Amino acid sequence: MPVNARSWLAAYAIKAPDVQVQQLQLDSRKVGAGDVFLAIPGVQQHGSQFIDKAFAQGAALVLTDNGSYADERIMVVPQLNQILPQLVSAFYQQPATQLQLVGITGTNGKSSIAFFINQLAELLATNAAVIGTLGYGYYQKLTTLPNTTPHFVDLQRILAEFVSSDVKLAAMEVSSHALVQQRVAGLHFNVAVFTNLTRDHLDYHGTMAEYGAAKALLFKPELSQAAVINVSDEFGRALAAQCVNPLFVYGKAEDCNGFERYLAYSDVVPMVNGYQVRLSSHLGEFSLQLPLLGEFNIQNVLAAIGALYLLGQPLNTLIAAAAQLKAVPGRMEQFIFPQQFTAVIDYAHTPDALQQALQSLRMHCASRLWCVFGCGGDRDRGKRPLMGQLAELFADHIIVTADNPRSEDIVAICEEIAAGMSPDASYQIEPDRKAAIKLALASAQPGDIVLVAGKGHETVQIIGAEVRQYDERAYLQQLVAEMSL
């Protein structure tokens, strides 16, 4: 709904024309008729360079933090960056206060936990939505996003959309980049969830210590009210020890000892399509038959249950509902072939995630375990030989291929991965990703599992400067159909 600019900005002692405005925009390319363009410092350029373009596209007003302008439509507010989170929240009528907000951080599992929270809430008759890597909205009908965690200007707009759609709960991935760059400024989460900390994004953070410190920001009282923390993770245990917010922990049974509120698992029995698990908690013992692959998904589900428990849902009801959960697209997602072998697509693109995926699938694998994967170009090169080493250690046969090579040579990346393997490792290099998948499937026998790792839900592949359409899930579905003829 349109907002009167003069009324909106008067509370901040900013004089504005008496006009109706539509949306707030950080990107001049997205400005539409009647919008307010926020010309603030960006990562590389200052937004003031694009004021003329914003007006050409129909902007009604511009807010910026420096310069001198004769145009009354341009308001210069020197302290704009400091007050912008409050300005934006007021523009969208404080949507965060009308929702239960769950923020999820950690290296792996964020998308899955957000989806499981959405599914569990739906099973308990609560309208919910997600924001994250896969997009935003209802988990089965998402709108794509350029970043895992949008800027707070876009977040407030999204949250306002949720409120207008009668959403009551939003589960949101909060990346380490977003925390350092203050993209969640102005939000206060009802619950903050921590999954784990493993090697990733060191090209940005520099060290694991800095990476961990970024994740820990979410658990400060200024950003969240309560915490759900994985104490089977080393960093998680340290985080729980210093957490001042009300705490709920989850993890393996032996790791949860000594905590007041917890949900722990033990006695894991693998089945063809999931697990039988014993759960213990401060409220008693439970049994769960979970229809998901990957032991890490047990932890992801416990995190989702913990978040909803802290929001007031009964623990026993949540555990019962968890038996109906479905896999997240591109996260340990199964494709059953008529030749009696299975392909599994997973987003695993870090050493820890690849190891966990392979170890988990080994528990379900009756025969040989295949691994098809690559590493992205122009990113952390140090993880390449490590991932090759782990693939050799936990898979029977490996096909090294392209991921998103970007500006790097595909074969050179593959060779850096292979450098981590021993000379007698059972591997080969096939630079074409589709050909690599076909090669593994053509070689697979009944009882085999083929893990195709790294792309997961993604629908493009970046080769050089070209962004090619590439949907691995659709490709596997096509191969299942072809091999069923």
TrEMBL record:
<dbReference type="Pfam" id="PF01225">
    <property type="entry name" value="Mur_ligase"/>
</dbReference>
<comment type="similarity">
    <text>Belongs to the MurCDEF family. MurE subfamily.</text>
</comment>
<feature type="binding site">
    <location>
        <position position="183"/>
    </location>
    <ligand>
        <name>UDP-N-acetyl-alpha-D-muramoyl-L-alanyl-D-glutamate</name>
    </ligand>
</feature>
<keyword id="KW-0961">Cell wall biogenesis/degradation</keyword>
<dbReference type="GO" id="GO:0008765">
    <property type="term" value="F:UDP-N-acetylmuramoylalanyl-D-glutamate-2,6-diaminopimelate ligase activity"/>
</dbReference>
<comment type="function">
    <text>Catalyzes the addition of meso-diaminopimelic acid to the nucleotide precursor UDP-N-acetylmuramoyl-L-alanyl-D-glutamate (UMAG) in the biosynthesis of bacterial cell-wall peptidoglycan.</text>
</comment>
<feature type="modified residue" description="N6-carboxylysine">
    <location>
        <position position="215"/>
    </location>
</feature>
<dbReference type="InterPro" id="IPR036565">
    <property type="entry name" value="Mur-like_cat_sf"/>
</dbReference>
<keyword id="KW-0573">Peptidoglycan synthesis</keyword>
<keyword id="KW-0131">Cell cycle</keyword>
<keyword id="KW-0460">Magnesium</keyword>
<dbReference type="GO" id="GO:0009252">
    <property type="term" value="P:peptidoglycan biosynthetic process"/>
</dbReference>
<dbReference type="InterPro" id="IPR035911">
    <property type="entry name" value="MurE/MurF_N"/>
</dbReference>
<keyword id="KW-0963">Cytoplasm</keyword>
<dbReference type="GO" id="GO:0051301">
    <property type="term" value="P:cell division"/>
</dbReference>
<keyword id="KW-0067">ATP-binding</keyword>
<feature type="binding site">
    <location>
        <begin position="106"/>
        <end position="112"/>
    </location>
    <ligand>
        <name>ATP</name>
    </ligand>
</feature>
<dbReference type="InterPro" id="IPR004101">
    <property type="entry name" value="Mur_ligase_C"/>
</dbReference>
<feature type="binding site">
    <location>
        <position position="458"/>
    </location>
    <ligand>
        <name>meso-2,6-diaminopimelate</name>
    </ligand>
</feature>
<feature type="binding site">
    <location>
        <position position="28"/>
    </location>
    <ligand>
        <name>UDP-N-acetyl-alpha-D-muramoyl-L-alanyl-D-glutamate</name>
    </ligand>
</feature>
<keyword id="KW-0132">Cell division</keyword>
<feature type="binding site">
    <location>
        <position position="379"/>
    </location>
    <ligand>
        <name>meso-2,6-diaminopimelate</name>
    </ligand>
</feature>
<dbReference type="InterPro" id="IPR036615">
    <property type="entry name" value="Mur_ligase_C_dom_sf"/>
</dbReference>
<feature type="binding site">
    <location>
        <position position="454"/>
    </location>
    <ligand>
        <name>meso-2,6-diaminopimelate</name>
    </ligand>
</feature>
<dbReference type="GO" id="GO:0000287">
    <property type="term" value="F:magnesium ion binding"/>
</dbReference>
<feature type="binding site">
    <location>
        <begin position="403"/>
        <end position="406"/>
    </location>
    <ligand>
        <name>meso-2,6-diaminopimelate</name>
    </ligand>
</feature>
<dbReference type="GO" id="GO:0005737">
    <property type="term" value="C:cytoplasm"/>
</dbReference>
<dbReference type="InterPro" id="IPR013221">
    <property type="entry name" value="Mur_ligase_cen"/>
</dbReference>
<protein>
    <recommendedName>
        <fullName>UDP-N-acetylmuramoyl-L-alanyl-D-glutamate--2,6-diaminopimelate ligase</fullName>
        <ecNumber>6.3.2.13</ecNumber>
    </recommendedName>
</protein>
<keyword id="KW-0436">Ligase</keyword>
<dbReference type="GO" id="GO:0071555">
    <property type="term" value="P:cell wall organization"/>
</dbReference>
<feature type="binding site">
    <location>
        <position position="26"/>
    </location>
    <ligand>
        <name>UDP-N-acetyl-alpha-D-muramoyl-L-alanyl-D-glutamate</name>
    </ligand>
</feature>
<keyword id="KW-0547">Nucleotide-binding</keyword>
<dbReference type="InterPro" id="IPR005761">
    <property type="entry name" value="UDP-N-AcMur-Glu-dNH2Pim_ligase"/>
</dbReference>
<feature type="domain" description="Mur ligase N-terminal catalytic">
    <location>
        <begin position="21"/>
        <end position="92"/>
    </location>
</feature>
<dbReference type="Pfam" id="PF02875">
    <property type="entry name" value="Mur_ligase_C"/>
</dbReference>
<feature type="short sequence motif" description="Meso-diaminopimelate recognition motif">
    <location>
        <begin position="403"/>
        <end position="406"/>
    </location>
</feature>
<keyword id="KW-0133">Cell shape</keyword>
<dbReference type="GO" id="GO:0005524">
    <property type="term" value="F:ATP binding"/>
</dbReference>
<feature type="binding site">
    <location>
        <begin position="148"/>
        <end position="149"/>
    </location>
    <ligand>
        <name>UDP-N-acetyl-alpha-D-muramoyl-L-alanyl-D-glutamate</name>
    </ligand>
</feature>
<dbReference type="Pfam" id="PF08245">
    <property type="entry name" value="Mur_ligase_M"/>
</dbReference>
<comment type="pathway">
    <text>Cell wall biogenesis; peptidoglycan biosynthesis.</text>
</comment>
